[in-house]
Design a protein that fits this description.
Blueprint: E1 9-15, H1 38-50, E2 55-59, H2 73-78, H3 87-96, E3 102-108, H4 114-127, E4 132-137, H5 142-147, H6 156-174, E5 201-202, E6 207-208, E7 223-226, H7 231-240, E8 243-246, H8 251-267, E9 276-285, H9 289-299, H10 305-316, H11 331-335, H12 341-351, H13 358-365, E10 375-378, H14 380-392, E11 398-402, H15 408-423, H16 436-440
Parallel strand pairs: 1-2, 1-11, 2-3, 3-4, 4-7, 7-8, 8-9, 9-10, 9-11
Antiparallel strand pairs: 5-6
Helix pairs in contact: 1-3, 4-6, 6-7, 7-8, 12-13, 14-15
């Protein structure tokens, strides 16, 4: 399945909290500690825009990790993703000092109303002049449920059933205003009512009348991001996503996922080239390979054993303190894991054990460790070679770059690797458009473009 784009997409993985997605990053001696200030995020945004990144993306959850031992103490004591600020003000601060880079954030379909989410991101899209993206999540653990007025998270597949209807409502609202609805004649009419439409949605999960209150942006509506990895999650992503964040441990599995997922998109009647797949990878870059290896040696001293089990408890929605280190999970326990089932499935597959132990989960997943995701270490040429191989061999359409520490990991990438990719013609030298869709090679969607074609 040939790629259409000759240039890769680059996305930076961020969090509005005390660390990057690697919880040990706050312990790095070169990490900035002013993560509760606008200047922190504005510096990152300017760095990424200098590197012509497509998107600065913020992950989020609605609770700190407190599943391990049914307590937050270890997470707080060890700084394991305990600070989680609201993304909208943070994204707005970054947007205020940038002009081209896309800015995306995570909002849950489980704990918010579709009208609210539609309005938040439509407004952000207008205020950034068409640079917004929404990462759609279904919220996966009981800690989030407890913060949002519920006893426990919805069952895995039910969360996606609800999310499917949520997406219909959001897109329906985004379709309310036709592009030329506003007349703006100060001596006459403000807008043409015949070009502003109600929704009148009544479904199994939601009722929403409309009309929507936010007109269309320069890019039509925000880019939709998804990262579903389970069977049901992939089906949801194939239906709705325009940018997919993939978890692929190596190139061969990345190529397999790329082919299968693009085919799944096509079978729905969607154009597969308009869905970009970007696996999450880690880079450690030095002026020389030896310098990079010395950086990696320092980084690998930073994680603590507690990091992995606290994070696994959070993401799998299972208390890992309830089992001995070498005690196998029962069939029933594995079946009842309601969190990120892709991690469970990966551990079972890669460990070769039908009933892996806690130690197997820690060792195979590398949760909280720099080796959790594909790791590219070396000089700028070494790292560029690795990224080019994945891209050229159709393992992806680009990459989500995770930071071992901030801002240094991104500054190294922009200063050293980006020029090599540009010289090879694999990445832009300048932005040629102003909207995120233009950066990604995605067209501005027409009204109703999100709807699947009718089956014969």
């Amino acid at each position: 399945m040939a790629q259409v784009n000759s240039q890769m997409a680059l996305v930076a993985f961020l969090q509005a909290q005390n660390c990057s997605n690697y919880v040990y990053s706050w312990r790095h001696p070169d990490t900035m500690s002013d993560f509760m200030t606008p200047e922190y995020y504005q510096r990152i945004g300017r760095t990424l825009e200098d590197g012509k990144f497509d998107l600065a993306f913020f992950d989020d959850r609605l609770a700190m990790p407190d599943k391990y031992g049914d307590d937050y103490v270890e997470a707080v004591a060890n700084g394991i993703r305990t600070v989680k600020m609201d993304l909208v003000p943070v994204m707005s601060m970054m947007a205020a000092t940038t002009s081209r880079i896309g800015i995306g954030g995570t909002y849950s379909t489980t704990y918010f109303e579709p009208f609210h989410v539609a309005r938040v991101f439509a407004t952000l899209d207008l205020m950034t002049r068409g640079r917004a993206a929404w990462n759609v999540v279904t919220s996966l653990n009981d800690s989030e449920a407890a913060n949002m007025g519920r006893d426990q998270a919805l069952p895995h597949d039910m969360r996606y059933d609800r999310a499917d209807e949520f997406m219909q409502v959001v897109h329906g609202h985004w379709d309310t205003w036709e592009d030329d609805a506003i007349i703006g004649d100060k001596s006459g009419r403000f807008a043409d009512p015949s070009k502003v439409h109600p929704l009148e949605h009544r479904g199994d999960w939601f009722m929403s009348r409309g009309p929507f209150t936010v007109p269309r942006s320069p890019q039509g509506y925000p880019v939709v991001i998804q990262a579903g990895q389970s069977g049901r999650g992939r089906a949801f992503a194939a239906r709705w996503s325009e940018l997919v964040f993939a978890l692929s441990p190596d190139l061969q599995l990345a190529k397999k996922f790329y082919q299968l997922f693009k085919t799944q998109v096509q079978l729905l009647g969607r154009e597969s080239t308009l869905v970009k797949i970007c696996p999450l990878v880690v880079t450690v870059i030095g002026e020389t390979r030896t310098a990079a290896e010395e950086k990696l040696a320092l980084i690998e001293t930073l994680p603590k054993p507690i990091d992995g089990v606290v994070l696994l408890s959070e993401v799998l929605n299972f208390d890992f303190s309830s089992k001995g280190l070498d005690e196998p999970f029962t069939d029933e326990e594995l079946a009842n894991i309601s969190g990120l089932q892709a991690i469970r499935d990966q551990v079972v597959a890669l460990s070769g054990k039908k009933n892996p132990s806690v130690r197997d989960f820690v060792d195979v997943s590398n949760r909280g460790n720099v080796r959790e995701h594909p790791l590219f270490v070396g000089s700028a040429k070494d790292v560029a070679d690795g990224l080019e191989e994945w891209f050229s061999d159709e393992g992806c359409d680009g990459f989500v770059i995770a930071a071992t520490h901030i801002p240094g990991a991104y500054e190294d990438f922009v200063r050293l690797v980006v020029p090599v990719l540009q010289k090879r013609g694999l990445f832009r030298k300048e932005y040629t458009g102003s909207t995120l869709r233009e950066h990604l090679g995605l067209p501005k969607p027409a009204i109703g473009a999100w709807k699947l074609p009718a089956k014969a």
